[in-house]
Amino acid sequence: MANDEPVNTGEVNDEQVTPEAISELAKRRGFFFGSSEAYGGVAGFYTMGPQGAALKGNVESAWRDRFAVKEGNQEIEAPTIMPEPVFEASGHLDGFDDMLVECGECGESHRADHLIEDETGIEEAETLPIPEVEALIEEHDLRCPNCGASLAGRPVEDFNLMFETSIGPGSGQTGYLRPETAQGIFVEFGRLKEYARNQLPFGVAQIGRAYRNEISPRRGLIRTREFTQAELEQFVDPERDEPSLDDVRDVEVRLYPATEQEKEGGDYLETTIGEAVETGVVANEWIAYYLGIAKRWFERVGVDADRFRYRQHLPGERAHYASDCWDAEAELGSVSASGDAADRLATDPSAGDWVEIAGFSYRTDYDLSKHGEHADESFTVFEQYDEPKTVERAVVDPDMSALGPEFGAEATDVADALRDLAALDPDAFGGDEVVVEIDGEEYAVPTDVANFRVEEQTESGEHVTPHVIEPSFGVDRTVYTVIAHAYARDEVDGETRTYLRFVPEIAPTSVAVFPLLSNDESLTALAGEIADDLREAGLSVAYDDSGNIGRRYRRQDEIGTPFCVTVDPEGVEGTGPETATVRERDSTAQIRVPVDELADELAAVRRGRKTFDDLRAAYGAVETADA
Length: 627
Ligand code: GAP
What we know:
This protein is of the alpha+beta class. Among the domains are: about 1-25 and about 510-625, Anticodon-binding domain (Rossmann fold, 3-Layer(aba) Sandwich), CATH 3.40.50.800; about 385-460, no CATH class. About 35% of the residues lie in helices and about 30% in strands. It contains 22 helices and 29 strands. The strands form eight sheets. It has a nine-stranded mixed sheet. A six-stranded mixed sheet has the order 25-24-26-27-28-29, with helices on both faces. α18 (about 520-535) links the parallel β24 and β25 (about 540-545).
């Protein structure tokens, strides 16, 4: 007989889980909580507690495993503060704005587009121009959520989201906390391409902090001012490089394309990655490839596929660098929707509370071209042709003995300008005279002085500016989603329990070990040894000998520990090998396993090589006392 734990007899409870319920559990059990509360707190900053930090670490490890290791990509770690010229070049100084409206009465700041979305039901209001946003505030008589004063007539302004800082003492140099980890990869492109042996395609991954001075942070980890991104910059030659689409062709996805969003009553497209590419719904094959890889990855870490979709950005919604973008969105409004609620969620895109958790952008050659214009380094890759090519090139060989006396100090610049013009516009040399422009001034040169001719040249390759496909994940939003989708309630022995159905790979604590009785030396000694063995096998272990066994199970259920190992008298009595019970969190079913097999078996489940059902088949279920 196993210890006194009733078998789970109840149905999963389908009631709404509120953000407040998640925040309460998160705070009480050490997942996350508002920072600096001893000093009154400051909106938009969160501390991950022991469970949250472990959960987040596991999510990051799973991301690294999939997007860096398995894809064969490099990973780097760049500084979080970068000098101003980086963000001039990247476009963030000019274009990284949200719409701000301030209350005339209480002075509280609000995101104008969010107010409109919340109060009028209009979607994606950030795509609207400012005058239209001001008109909508007036038309709907929108009011300050803080004090209730009317916001009609208040100006709406662009507010840059970057945190500015000063590097070094005195007037120093202006710097900014990076608003995305990506720029730390782009500015180092010159070196990174060398590490990749100048061979496209290659990818560079980074997991790190990003900072945005959000106008109104909200909903726990969903919109904060400091957060973690996991980003991959995939550099490709769009003319030559293709992803391994066959690896993801069969992945099923729920797509919400821009064309459907723009239609009255538009629908989801339930399709596969292969079909989405063939029909052109997802235009870029690299984006499609990563949508497939990411769908599988989100399921691996415990995101509920029924509450997951890919939504394409509307044209006005795209970031300044993107020519196409698909967001991974998670539904956070309901607990394990079933019946009618599940049907509606699956068929009606307006149903549910959807939050972006990752973005998949086609950034073209925007970033590398911009940095190429501003910085001295080369942001191109020299690609060798398979065979050398013979090409015709227009060239000039200016006669300096004629240019010198004619143009004096400007003669060298005129010669350079003639060379550039020959490459760009050979037809300009068709007449008796050719005109070049330098700093707004025109210089006329007789064509025979330029010595223009067309030559055959052999070239071994060319310089190309790589295009970038960027899967960009919000780690904190993923962590929040994983908690929200794992959150469950059921009835065990007539009592409601709350538990988190984390998959073993990401659960912050893998196993809890209990001696059934805390005052029995033989039980506590063996439980201590088992805990050490499990830790040695790389598992995260909690040891608990306080309180009745039911309460100990409940504590572990609430932090999502998949397995509890209990050492009871039956396991240490007799002459056979010592055994302990293993209780699985969701079913509360128990098995009895020889102690010296525990570590290997549970480590195999944690790694995804076995399931609890495999163990149950091998060891058989154990009856509990009172089921
Ligand atoms: N490099 C591209 C980029 O930064 P983004 O859509 O602005 O794209 C990527 O951000 C991801 O970062 C989002 O999908 C989201 O998960 C996360 N994120 C963005 N702003 C955030 C915030 N204020 N708080 C928490 N996560 C945020």
